[in-house]
Amino acid sequence: xxxxxxxxxxxxxxxxxxxxxxxxxxxxxxxxxxxxxxxxxxxxxxxxxxxxxxxxxxxxxxxxxxxxxxxxxxxxxxxxxxxxxxxxxxxxxxxxxxxxxxxxxxxxxxxxxxxxxxxxxxxxxxxxxxxxxxxxxxxxxxxxxxxxxxxxxxxxxxxxxxxxxxxxxxxxxxxxxxxxxxxxxxxxxxxxxxxxxxxxxxxxxxxxxxxxxxxxxxxxxxxxxxxxxxxxxxxxxxxxxxxxxxxxxxxxxxxxxxxxxxxxxxxxxxxxxxxxxxxxxxxxxxxxxxxxxxxxxxxxxxxxxxxxxxxxxxxxxxxxxxxxxxxxxxxxxxxxxxxxxxxxxxxxxxxxxxxxxxxxxxxxxxxxxxxxxxxxxxxxxxxxxxxxxxxxxxxxxxxxxxxxxxxxxxxxxxxxxxxxxxxxxxxxxxxxxxxxxxxxxxxxxxxxxxxxxxxxxxxxxxxxxxxxxxxxxxxxxxxxxxxxxxxxxxxxxxxxxxxxxxxxxxxxxxxxxxxxxxxxxxxxxxxxxxxxxxxxxxxxxxxxxxxxxxxxxxxxxxxxxxxxxxxxxxxxxxxxxxxxxxxxxxxxxxxxxxxxxxxxxxxxxxxxxxxxxxxxxxxxxxxxxxxxxxxxxxxxxxxxxxxxxxxxxxxxxxxxxxxxxxxxxxxxxxxxxxxxxxxxxxxxxxxxxxxxxxxxxxxxxxxxxx
Length: 706
Fold this sequence. Notes:
- The protein is mostly helical.
- The protein has 30 helices and no strands.
């Protein structure tokens, strides 16, 4: 195991203001040390004390503190209730000067005094706190802060403590360090007259940044770093202020301002010999001016010491977007895991970010089941809000449901208040855009061109800032090369321009295989098989689709499954015809065998296109089914006539059943075509309008929260 990181040489805070919640924490010390509870409950109490003393979160109210302390489970019945009653009885004994003084005398008795000869201090009781421990330092500091108070200061503390225990919010917390020189301290020191840095301006900065108010965020950031952090003239934090300013501009898309602030931060950090800040600046500079050649396979840059695991995860995102292989992305992901394992201060959200990144990589690799597992991890163990990993996982879940044809389920995920409540301004833009794209995909599948032009297109939200696009010359594609090629090939195939589509499809095959994006690779294989049918190579097309069939039939992408099954059925039927002379029909037995083999795939395609509400594609499949049933009837009759069984009643029943199915397909064709025309001519969709009204209302709620 590597040695722990060295402690910083920063001096501790020279001022300490005694607050009402400090007195309540000390009362817990008195109760738990004077009459120790059972080991299980004792462990719970000490954990609560450690969390409250650390002050990483706002202090709890008196009732909240009592509830949390008494909620632990112990080995003795009603142990928690007894502790709660004891805590509620403490305030009535501390309402006088003598009572408060005696209380602090009792508290400090649990911390042994230092011996004059330097030997180990002797404990004053069987249950005490080591004076230099985390708890001992807290007790001693509160004790010294109390005995620095004058009579007036003590009475002010008692009044604030009374108001706080009575439930008055904010009692005792408006008092600042420099407010105590007006008679509240018995012997004020020079440090008590100095106002040291407070976290309030930084909280206001984070709030303004979440709201997208750059001016207020910049002003509060300046206020925070202009405070007194030490007794020296120079705080040594100028580079941190500039780095925060650069990150603020970067997050809001002001990349030129971010580059200027980052350049200044680099200069100041180098002058101050702050290597860690220089590293952070260089990492952010790579986002503004990405060096693509450094991320090619085999040329992965060496991870520098003190590099954040989240920075390496961003490299994964960049590599996928520039068309690098999924394998290289996994290499970067493993590097991020190694950094997290070697770090003693890895933030907890970094774990969920890695799971979210893994889910994204598995989607590109075409393994939806593993991607779903990592999504479930993130969603199950994170709280609703602006957590980036949770937000990304929810968007991926909605997209997966949409690929599976569950349009309602995708909207249910996106419009769930747990998804959009608490988002910041940038995330809200991404969310609104994702909802719009989901509605757009549904409209495009139905081929509702009129509704798209009249309703959806005018309501398209503004695209969120692309954080890696500094200028139009930056070579970051908006979609993968394989995806772009498949869209072009689909358009050419629908236009019967098969010769022009061949190089496009081959390019998509090569790109998807190189990148390892097998989801796009399967689409390209199906497209090449369809072209093979048109060029008289149905057998090769059939073998290609049968090679990807096990991965397609699991239903990860219903549209791809429908397309592959329909194309495979066409290949099976076309293969039964003579490859030498396509005008010569196959023997009836051979033709019927091929038609019966193609029938299950056609039914799968018809059901999938029904689920996806793709009316035109469904019509093509229904028409093919009617033709198949008609030719099956003719084939059965021809086989029976050739064998001299033309008058066989069983053959007649089979032929009649085929004709019945053919007629049913013909009726279904007319019904679906009627629905297609009605849906395609709609200018207003009431359901769509209601859904968009929900998006507008949710946006209003998010805006009010910000």
